[in-house]
Design goal:
With 384 residues, the chain is mainly β. The chain has one domain (34-223, 305-383): Beta-galactosidase, Chain A, domain 5. It is built from three helices and 30 strands. It has helices at 2-30, 93-98, 275-280, and strands spanning 34-42, 48-55, 61-65, 70-77, 83-85, 105-107, 113-114, 118-121, 124-127, 136-137, 150-155, 159-168, 179-188, 192-201, 205-206, 210-212, 214-215, 229-232, 234-238, 251-252, 264-265, 284-289, 297-303, 309-315, 319-323, 332-333, 339-340, 346-351, 366-367, 373-383. The strands form eight sheets. It has a nine-stranded antiparallel beta sheet, with no helix packed on it. A six-stranded antiparallel beta sheet has the order 17-28-25-22-19-20, with no helix packed on it. The chain has a five-stranded antiparallel beta sheet with strand order 1-2-3-4-5, with no helix packed on it. The chain is globular and about 60 Å long. It binds beta-D-glucopyranose (BGC). Beta-D-glucopyranose is lined by residues 101-102, 112, 244, 284, 321, 323, 327, 347, 349. The site of beta-D-glucopyranose has 10 residues, from strand 25 and strand 28.
Length: 384
Amino acid sequence: MRNTTTILCWIILIVSFLTLGSCKKHDKEIHKLDVKKENWGRTKDGQEIYLYTLSNIHGMQIKIINYGAIVQSLFVPDKSGKYEDVVLGYDRLDDYLKDSPYFGAIVGRYGNRIARGRFTLDGVQYQLATNNGPNHLHGGIKGFDKVVWNAEPIHEKDKVRLKLTYLSPDGEEGYPGNLKVAVIYSLTNHNELEIEYFAQTDKATPVNLTHHGYFNLTGHCKRDILEHQLWINADYFTPVDSTLIPTGELRPVEGTPFDFRQPTAIGARINDPDEQLKYGRGYDHNWVLNQADGTLKLQAALYDPQSGRYMQIYTDQPGLQFYSGNFLDGSIVGKGGVVYKHRYGLCLETQHFPDSPNHPEFPSTILRPGEQYHTKTIYKFSIK
Ligand code: BGC
């Protein structure tokens, strides 16, 4: 009898253990590494656009469309564990097709400006479109933010990835050479959004690819970004002329509103009487990142004290364009009907310096046949 009781006890113990185990497994099944694909409409010329949702085991989600390789939304937790969207964008493809200030897109062939759309390479002068006052901006009239990319999800052990590819034909927007481009977005189980950029060309061409996400860590744009604290590991920045073209000078940040070597609220000095701030209508400049030797380094961080959301930026790039959403003026109604008012989003674009093709003293942006362009940036989310 005693034996039967012992056996019964053991059975109960084993069954409860197994049930507990399966509960745990079920928990993980709710949040797991996954990619979902859904139809998201068509472009005017009938090309199918899809929305890909990448999720990780914690419940972080990134939604990406193959139009413009755009990150349409990015859900990350605040200090109370609440997941909210921390990037600006639209709910519908039509709004992206109509007009977008590069919300969440990949910009290229050349991120930021090229003076008067002109450069000389190997003795040949090239003229690009001038789509920003007298200058060329973000790849021209139809840059990589407005083309349809091929998308292919890739599953790995501890990350989910979406590989987007595009072939930019020789002469597109005035640039030389057929350029094969690939961008891989990855979501890891460490709440990181990794972006890798690859390119190959058959003629020498400038290439400077970046991601143009507008961040607002308050979640669903509850407030502007002026209380966000920014840290940039840079002793110098590149001052600009009144059309936002670098003058060529590397100016120390010391004693200027451009010193973010200690985390500082973006709004603390943005209205200072400073000529550079006047030209940018706020911050719209390139910082020269310290110790940029081509390897991945922690170079910037953004923190919203109210939500506790913290974003660190690791990059192998020499520059960081910090744009404080100065041109947002309340005329755009974004996701969930939110009006994007002045400085409701900010961009932190890791890249080479603007107008490098006209500044031989800047790190080179020229890609030649036989070379492989490969750069990497990680936006890592946590709470503080
Ligand atoms: C540029 C801004 C520009 C914005 C476009 C930024 O990368 O630096 O000058 O207005 O992109 O939305």
